[in-house]
Amino acid sequence: MTNPTIRPPRRTPFIDLLDLAIRAGRRVGAVAPARLEKAHLLERAAEATGLDDFGDPWFERPMDVLLDAIADEARLNAAGDFSAMQQFHHVLRDRLLAQMWFKRHPEILARAMPRPVVIVGPMRSGTTRMHRLLASDRRFSHMRSFETISPVPRPDFEEVLEGRREDFRPVLARRIMQVARLANPRTLSIHPTGPCEPEEELGLLVASMWGMKHEAQWHVPGYGRWCEGESAVPAYRHMADLLRLVGWSQQASTLRPWILKTPQHMLDLPALLEVFPDARLIFTHRDPLKVVGSAASLAWNQTIIYSDHADPAGIGREWLHKTSLQVERMRAARASIPAGRMIDVQYEDMERDWRGTMERVYRFLGLDIAPAMPRMEDYMRRAGALKRRPHAYSLEEFGLTAGDVLDRLGDYARAFDVPIEGEAPDEAPRRRLRVS
């Protein structure tokens, strides 16, 4: 049971006011009621675009399960179901527009994506820092935040390429981020970003109604359990095609490897490697006490926006389960990955000596780090300015103890030589990590 004297933070008054306004608008007919029904959502997206090809219909399976879980489990407030309607509409509209672009420019799907570098680690294990440091190197391609939000260009994008029009997507991303800061300003300290900052590709998996983003914003454990039993290959194939579209919209060279990262890959490594068979993998590791507490805090700060019934102890249990499953599946998948295609990086090593750690990563990648170092140093200076305050959280807020976490993840920490807060290095036998 959650300690009643240690409580996670409340949501901002902005959401309470927005919720009241939406409810009042619905009472007088000024705001339409939410209709989270698949047929209605598909029809609305088709009407908005004048298109009817959503691509591979596989996405409808997770969509059905997600909509059922929202109806049965999420207990959304008015702001929550209004936001969900907008999110589904945005994703479905982008699916339609993506197929339009593939037909208009068949060369998009022929774009090569050689030897991507994929950062794989639990939520809050330093994957963002690693991703943004590597994205500083112009020898790689990377997603930007506005492309994660809106990976598919609008139908007039050829005019953007010709210099006759500005891309509206960064403007939209800036507006969305402004609203997100009003809804919960803590997101700025948890995950600092901006419209053009390097960002993960989780939004490309959401395009197939797949991934932990849904579980981090809504209480949908039924959907989570269903996804855990399904193959993610169709979602990753669509993700790869959207990456090709993003690369085409950036006019980026197909010779530049992509830098990818999202904690979702921990669960879906077999699917990732089926779609990107020559991927090189950077595994990040952090004290599981920090990982679980930080992940629960991230999910809490999202869930409280959309529901009035968020349960901190339930969120703690869910993200302990999710983190444990991520680690279990990661360890199982590594057994079939050639040693020369993966490297392990400790969060604490990056904290102590990020330059030396990145030099080791670059040796693994077979690249000279010198050309990238000035831009990496600039990123680290900007990151310090962007992160205005540390992310504060505790296990106790979410009904967990260190013992609960280490019962599930202590073996992982020992196997990968991950330092645990409060534990001396010689308290348990450990093996040193190799570039493997």
Automatic annotation (TrEMBL):
It is an enzyme of class 2 (transferase). Coiled coil: none annotated. It comes from the Bacteria. GO terms for molecular function: transferase activity. The keyword Cell cycle does not apply. The keyword Transferase applies. Its EC number is 2.8.2.-. Keywords: Transferase. Pfam families: Sulfotransfer_3 (PF13469). This is Sulfotransferase. It comes from Pelagerythrobacter marensis.
